[in-house]
Each structure stands twice: as C-alpha cells, then as structure tokens.
Amino acid sequence: MYVNLLRQKAYHRLTDDDMGKIIGVSRNTYNQKLRNGRFWPNECKAFCMYFNKPFDYLFATEGETVSETGCKA
Question: Do 43 and 55 touch, CB atoms closer than 8 A?
Fold first, then answer.
C-alpha cells in the first residue's frame, strides 16, 4: 500500500471520488488500482503534479523511508 499517497489524500481531505477524478478514472477503478498497486505512468504523474510531490515519495511502499524531497533515508 502507498502510505504517503494515502497521507496526502487525508491531508487534503479528498474522497476516493476525488482521487479517481485526479487520474481520470472512477472511484471503483481507483480503489482497484490502489489495492493491486497498478497505476499507469500517466496516473502516477497526475498524482505527483497534483500533490507537488516526487514519485519516490508518493509511491514508497510500507517499509521504505523516503523524505518529501524524494530522497531515501
């Protein structure tokens, strides 16, 4: 699971519908992509641009430590 992506979602008080709209899919499709971890590159880029965060930060998995600048600690 992408902990930092979910933290950004919570911080900005976005719904699953909102997250789907950011990447141009339905709420159900967003949920499915989140569960299986299969976002397309253009969807990852859309999230990075929306949240103004680097890919390495937003899509770090549990157990990985990545700062908001994208540097691994």
Answer: no
